[in-house]
Amino acid sequence: MKGLRQIKPYVAGAQPQEKKMIKINTNENAFPPSPGVLQALAAFDGQSLRQYSSLENNILRDKLAENLGVKRNQLIVGNGSDDILALAFVSFFNSDDAVLFPDITYGFYKVWADLFRIPFEEVPLSDEFEIVTTDYKNRVNGGIVIANPNAPTGIFKDLSEVEAIVAANQDVVVIIDEAYIAFGGESALPLLEQYDNVFITRTFSKDAALAGLRVGYGIGSPKLISVINAVKNAYNPYSVDLIAEALATAAVEDIHYYERVNAEISETRDWFSAELRALGFEVLPSLTNFVLTKPAGIAAESLFEFLQSKQIYVRYFSDKGRLSNYLRMSIGTQAEMAKVIQVIGELFG
User: Fold this and answer.
1) Where in this chain does the entry annotate a coiled-coil region (predicted)?
2) Model pLDDT for residues 42-72, shown as the tens digit of each residue
3) The whole model's pTM is what?
């Protein structure tokens, strides 16, 4: 049939529904949303749903601006950070030069480049799965996208190295995807004061335990926000509904709750990493709410299948080349991760 688009979509992690499972395959937060969020949900006036949601989302943007130390006109809110990132691709990458991003990173970058017909080049990570700063300097490009910490590796790139990339590419937009920054590492927010070409994206899905709500945001110069807002309003101006804005605002107000639970997740991550290493596993250094690990004494696919038979769901990248021997495991509660270690230990007798 004429005119149909052919594209290979992003493949998300499975969403099993077993009641007694340990689900650590999609990097969801191990803890529930904050009490303030649940109170806001209970108090929400359903009668207001007859009206359209806000175009500007100023209530949420003002709370974010206060929390982040930026101005309202430096923020855009959308239907998850995927929405913001897709908008950013369309808004900022419109030259004939290739956009650069790592060969092992968030899989949606390549999908969006294909979908929007943006030329791109995947820059190989080092043998240690690290971004090589010099690979993004002194080369013509149409923009750069870096997840920091990176996914699915979990590795954080030092901010001075990120700044070196930004400084060397001031004629294009550099997107820094900070979906996991609450679990470790230094944010690129300070770069906004010096560089107009920086655009930072974040999500409420990971650190705010609101993956089911679908709210994300972008931070950049007023010029970049003006451009991306124009694109957003050209096709989906009401992308954040009334319930989502109310609950996301409550989450920002409950920042201390999330700081506490995310610190606990990070502590469990470090404990779990040490336990895996004690079993002989290779574990990449992670500053996220997941770890990427190469099993010892068993193929990654075999361990994936064994854990699934025990109702423990992890992520296996069967078609990812260099990652085919690795599993990504999200960090659940301390009790859940202790159970995972116990089950893996039983396999080795």
Assistant:
1) none
2) 999 999 999 999 999 999 999 999 999 999 9
3) 0.95
